[in-house]
Amino acid sequence: MNSKFIEYFKENFFKSENDLKIFLSSLDKHLKKTIRINTNKISPDILLERLKKYNYDLSPTFSKNVYYIERWENFDELEKRLGFTLEHLMWFFYIQELWASSSVFYLSDWKIDETNYLILDMASSPGWKTTQLEEFYPNSFIVANEFSRDRTAQLIANIERMWSENVWLTCYNWQFIWRLTETFDKILLDAPCSWEWIWFKAIESLKYWNLKNVKKIADLQEKLFESWLNALKVGWEMLYSTCTMNKIENEWVIENVLRKYPDSFEIITQKRFWPHIDNTWWFFVTRIKKLKSVDYKFSKKIEL
Ligand SMILES: C[S@@+](CC[C@H](N)C(=O)[O-])C[C@H]1O[C@@H](n2cnc3c(N)ncnc32)[C@H](O)[C@@H]1O
């Protein structure tokens, strides 16, 4: 275990040894898998009925169209693989962690909104939140921006598989988005982060965790946040999310931008998901409302 990581967590989040112990022991536990139903292709009732034949046990989560899924009998490994079911191959559902579906929930309050908005999904590949945005804002135009050209093939494939309409793909860096002053009605920034969540997949990856790397990524997040704030219309809302727990990439990014542009926005909701409390991987969401224009200085160089 990376001692610096443990120290940081203890100092920032856990007052007692016991609290830390509960948190650490939760990391070895099995977290329930969740699936999100693709309502563009099938209704939840029909899919739930179809999945019964594989002996999957489904129960609702707090998220609309997202279900916990477990096998109630022991089958061999191949049969256990959800990915091999016809329903998955048809993209009637996909496997998405509970936390990952929460960004769109917090932006929309789970209400389907038929108004026509212009929405920017600032860091969109592989597109799980883009396709979910399309579900919650069926009449909106969604700009799915992905800076990394290498990651756009996956984004396009997922948008097509999910039958998401009204999505326009762009490939810009934050310097370009910055120039789109007060253009969008809503923005989602699911920011690149230091990937602390990877601990749940490969604990050894945490040996690379250190504060220097965290601060470097926080600098980028701050730039993205600022460009995003500038691109949002006054009076409208945006959502910032990361799959890291540390405060440097979360609260501090928000506080630093607010210090730079005092009174420019207010926080509407903020939530941190914990594995030992919320039974999901860690995740952080903040919804804000823009209160006034930001006096932003453009850099001369644009990286496209
Ligand atoms: C957490 S992932 C987004 C996941 C996506 N929202 C989803 O739900 O499927 C963060 C994304 O930020 C992109 N990214 C990395 N550096 C960036 C930058 N400088 N500007 C904009 N996006 C960047 C990454 O390529 C990655 O696709």
Automatic annotation (TrEMBL):
<dbReference type="InterPro" id="IPR023267">
    <property type="entry name" value="RCMT"/>
</dbReference>
<protein>
    <submittedName>
        <fullName>rRNA (Cytosine-C(5)-)-methyltransferase RsmF</fullName>
    </submittedName>
</protein>
<dbReference type="GO" id="GO:0003723">
    <property type="term" value="F:RNA binding"/>
</dbReference>
<feature type="domain" description="SAM-dependent MTase RsmB/NOP-type">
    <location>
        <begin position="23"/>
        <end position="304"/>
    </location>
</feature>
<dbReference type="GO" id="GO:0001510">
    <property type="term" value="P:RNA methylation"/>
</dbReference>
<feature type="binding site">
    <location>
        <position position="146"/>
    </location>
    <ligand>
        <name>S-adenosyl-L-methionine</name>
    </ligand>
</feature>
<keyword id="KW-0949">S-adenosyl-L-methionine</keyword>
<feature type="binding site">
    <location>
        <position position="190"/>
    </location>
    <ligand>
        <name>S-adenosyl-L-methionine</name>
    </ligand>
</feature>
<dbReference type="InterPro" id="IPR049560">
    <property type="entry name" value="MeTrfase_RsmB-F_NOP2_cat"/>
</dbReference>
<keyword id="KW-0808">Transferase</keyword>
<feature type="active site" description="Nucleophile">
    <location>
        <position position="243"/>
    </location>
</feature>
<keyword id="KW-0489">Methyltransferase</keyword>
<dbReference type="Pfam" id="PF01189">
    <property type="entry name" value="Methyltr_RsmB-F"/>
</dbReference>
<comment type="similarity">
    <text>Belongs to the class I-like SAM-binding methyltransferase superfamily. RsmB/NOP family.</text>
</comment>
<dbReference type="InterPro" id="IPR029063">
    <property type="entry name" value="SAM-dependent_MTases_sf"/>
</dbReference>
<dbReference type="GO" id="GO:0008173">
    <property type="term" value="F:RNA methyltransferase activity"/>
</dbReference>
<keyword id="KW-0694">RNA-binding</keyword>
<dbReference type="InterPro" id="IPR001678">
    <property type="entry name" value="MeTrfase_RsmB-F_NOP2_dom"/>
</dbReference>
